[in-house]
Amino acid sequence: MTKNIFFRGEIDFCNYSCSYCPFAKKTLSKEKIQKESENLEKLFVYVKNLDENVNIMITPYGEALIHPLYQEFMARISTLENVRKIGIQSNLSVDTNELINTLSKNHADFSKIMLWATFHSEYADIENFCNKANSLSELISISCGIVANKKNYEEIRKLRENLNANIYLWINAMDKIKNRFSEDEISSLSKIDPMFAYEFYSKRIDFMNLRDDYFSNCQSYDKIYVDIQKYSSSCFFKKKRAIDSLCNNHKICDCFLGYSNFGNNVLDRFFGENIIFRIAQKRKFDALFVDIDGVMTGKDGKLINNLTKILENLSKKSRLYIASSRNIDSAKKLLGKNFHFFKGGVFSDGCYTVDFEKNTDKIIALDDSTNIKYFEEKLSEIINNTNKKDDILNIYQDNLKLNSNAEINENIKYISNDIDKGKNINLLYKLRKDILGEKLLRIALPSKIAKNIDLPNIKKRVYNNSTFFQNRDSSKLSAIKYICEINNIDNDKILIISDNIQDEELFENIKHSVSPIYQEELHKKSRYVLDLCHLTFIIK
Hints:
This protein is of the alpha/beta class. It has helices at about 30-50, 70-80, 95-105, 125-135, 155-160, 185-190, 200, 255-260, 265-270, 305-315, 330-335, 370-385, 390-405, 410-420, 445-450, 475-485, 505-510; strands spanning about 1-10, 55-60, 85-90, 115-120, 140-150, 170-175, 225, 230-235, 285-290, 320-325, 340-345, 350-355, 360-365, 430-435, 440-445, 460-465, 465-470, 495, 515, 530. It is about 30% helix and about 20% strand.
């Protein structure tokens, strides 16, 4: 168990004079610097003598990192065996070369240094800020952030564009306008910061009326908060030391330091052991299995923006595999040049598995001779028993979507005339067959017809108007396990991302799973709630 310590010292002076912040009005004296030096030494001795592991987060009122005594303290304390990580909040105005030199001279363990950097547009230049952050990220862990005020969306976009893809960019909603962000604005900003929506979710928490949702278990009692100027307690919001109850004089937790205390939720899993530093916890994954529809495509069915760049970044971190309901030909056609990023994949919902590097594949097919005949007979029977013209046209329209790209309205007009003339319209229906080589993988029918068909040895996968019938022994999970087996990949070393609500088996059996932000039905089943572009935040 690692104890988290928050420290706020004497220094309340900032070298910026942002209009919304009071700390630029403070003065800095030699006496305060001396007192701070003494405070840091006391903290060092206290931590050194602890029998437990600790994380330390410095949350100064002003800008502390520009002072050499803080740089030296972070370096010294990082060398202690029981210190897991040491972090600090900063505006990143520090000379980064001097910072790295000071840390090096004092033998800092760079793997333990964490930096929470905030961009202030009144004093910082985007390009310079991002260059500093990108440079530092080569040696230390860093996250960057900005306050959204409904007028600086372009500034936020430019920050994201200029920061390395590995750096998580968090967004705070400006307090005075939190209630005026629209759902569309929250959704748009969540594409940059996948945790942005929780700025609003947590604001409504009442300590006396905790809801039965993700944010119902305050863990602030397990942390140590030291504010030299005010108090020392188990929570910033308590005005007295009382560790046996929740904050009973602060009814909402609407800043990250407050609402991040509510454990076992999406925030907790995203940040992991780094939550007090607001830096996503990165893990090493040997394989990443990616769904196509809803993950690599948007709601319009088109490939998402910057997909090539996203896949390029991910391919540098892990082997990429597809895990899709599409057959391999459809996947190749849709992904185009992006297909080459993948080492293989699971196609046709697990009926076909291939590993290009191993030059091996696996097919789980249907029995051609019995199934095709059965389905054709069943199709004909259902059509012949359908009497209403509107029902026939609806079924035909769905079948047309399955089998051709023809103009639907024109075809519907002709079939309508044929029905009026009493023609045998079942001849117009055809089974859609998913065939690989000479093997029949799946059969597809309009869902209106398929709902009346059930076979003991066949499973159904329903996708809106289309229903696919496939071998009962085929599944995405078994196919993923096959790829992992031939590549000696442990289950803990794979990450899957899917928006398919029928992939419940994957979410239940694979520890590290991701559901897209829009797919709320899967949020409670997946470990992470992220879009594809956010995965670089959590992958080493």
